[in-house]
Write a sequence for this structure.
């Protein structure tokens, strides 16, 4: 059987499974359907964020405890969604609950810096090898402020970003991004106006309505794992470029790890041309290692951005790095926020980082991650599914392409139909997952071997059903 014929057969089989499982899912989630009808009257798409939407409606959750969540129909799931990577501490962890209760009794908000905020800043600097840090309220705020600081520090305006990476929803970074590109029919866009003589760095149109066209003049797109492309543009235009913002591990298209030597080359090139290197560790920070990708790969950026796991489930973001760069916020570079360093968030984040996400916790996460990815690989191999599994401790994924991804264009080769079938299959078997093929699983410290085995069993059954 030819590869093309086998792909066609698997894709057709996936569509059959998807149709059947979606119908079953709708039968199981009538409470979510009713809540959607109510929500859609006041919330566009019935949700508080576009990332939470789904067709024909999202699954609405009611509560969580440990590694499990319950939807509004009372259905129980093992949670691998993890609040889009936030809940590495799990749900209602006793230490986090106690921290929040104590903070609430002492005062939820002052708009004045408190001792817990200072202690959290100290811990962030220690973990991620930062000299200065500012606490904000989301990953979007962190990357937005980091870019402004980089521009202020260099006196330059142009920003480089990686093709296909997501860095929040402010105007500068809404270029070459999924999933909004799907809505606008731009998912396959991997070219534009050449920005260097080699043509491997380019400008493109924004992947969101409402972004001024002029913003394209200030954002250039460069492929991941391609140091040569970066060298081309920096050798020709380095004196115009304020910053390169990048995920050191791409996590908006599954998981793409840096090739050996790539991050080191990026670091050297940015240093050579006076470009501020910004690591977006919103997803990788405190998940792939205690010190994130900075620790895992040993490459230190000039600035780094964090959110999600560092808050213990509370709303948070942070950015920091070199003192000489960060100190521009004391000399006219705007960086404010009424809720920055909020005492409730600061206490939850401090307890999460110092009392829950301990060395023992990371050993536990590493064992569970290896068990989960290993089980998925076995199922993939036994059923000859064109897919691969990635394990990075608390984070991991299955991408439906035989070979590991090296960049966004590899992601476009994935068979999205297989993911579309897997999502309702897993939900119908009590595995709660993120709704997009660009996302990953998140394991928390309260997950168990039994939780992992339930995922592996459901996934293995899916692979067997897909193979037919």
């Amino acid at each position: 059987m030819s590869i093309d014929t086998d792909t066609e057969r698997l894709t057709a089989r996936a569509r059959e499974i998807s149709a059947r499982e979606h119908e079953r899912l709708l039968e199981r989630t009538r409470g979510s359907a009713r809540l959607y009808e109510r929500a859609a009257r006041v919330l566009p798409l019935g949700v508080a964020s576009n990332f939470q939407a789904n067709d024909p409606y999202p699954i609405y959750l009611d509560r969580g405890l440990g590694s499990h969540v319950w939807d509004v129909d009372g259905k129980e799931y093992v949670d691998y969604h993890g609040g889009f990577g936030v809940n590495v501490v799990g749900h209602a962890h006793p230490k986090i609950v106690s921290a929040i209760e104590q903070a609430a009794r002492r005062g939820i908000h002052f708009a004045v810096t408190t001792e817990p905020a200072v202690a959290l800043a100290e811990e962030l600097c220690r973990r991620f090898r930062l000299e200065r840090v500012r606490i904000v309220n989301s990953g979007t705020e962190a990357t937005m402020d980091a870019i402004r600081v980089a521009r202020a520090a260099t006196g330059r305006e142009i920003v480089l970003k990686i093709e296909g990476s997501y860095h929040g929803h402010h105007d500068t970074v809404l270029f070459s991004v999924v999933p909004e590109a799907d809505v606008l029919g731009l998912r396959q866009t991997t070219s534009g106006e050449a920005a260097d003589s080699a043509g491997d760095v380019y400008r493109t149109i924004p992947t969101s309505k409402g972004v001024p066209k002029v913003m394209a003049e200030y954002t250039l797109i460069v492929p991941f794992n391609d140091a040569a492309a970066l060298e081309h543009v920096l050798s020709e235009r380095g004196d115009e470029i304020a910053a390169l913002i990048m995920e050191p591990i791409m996590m908006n298209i599954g998981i793409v790890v840096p090739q050996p030597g790539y991050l080191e080359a990026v670091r050297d090139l940015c240093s050579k041309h006076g470009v501020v290197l910004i690591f977006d560790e919103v997803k990788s920070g405190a998940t792939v290692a205690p010190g994130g990708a900075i620790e895992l790969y040993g490459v230190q950026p000039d600035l780094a951005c964090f959110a999600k796991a560092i808050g213990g489930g509370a709303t948070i973001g942070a950015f920091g790095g070199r003192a000489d760069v960060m100190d521009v916020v004391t000399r006219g570079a705007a960086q404010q926020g009424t809720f920055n360093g909020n005492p409730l968030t600061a206490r939850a984040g401090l307890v999460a980082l110092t009392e829950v996400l301990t060395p023992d916790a990371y050993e536990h996460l590493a064992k569970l991650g290896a068990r989960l990815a290993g089980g998925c690989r076995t199922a993939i191999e036994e059923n000859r599914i064109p897919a691969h599994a990635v394990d990075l401790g608390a984070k991991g994924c299955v991408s439906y392409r035989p070979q590991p991804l090296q960049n966004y264009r590899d992601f476009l080769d994935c068979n999205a139909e297989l993911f579309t079938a897997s999502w309702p299959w897993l939900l119908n078997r009590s595995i709660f997952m993120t709704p997009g093929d660009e996302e990953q699983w998140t394991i928390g410290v309260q997950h168990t071997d039994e939780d992992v085995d339930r995922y592996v069993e459901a996934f293995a059954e899916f692979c067997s059903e897909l193979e037919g």
Q: What stands out?
A: The mean pLDDT is 96.
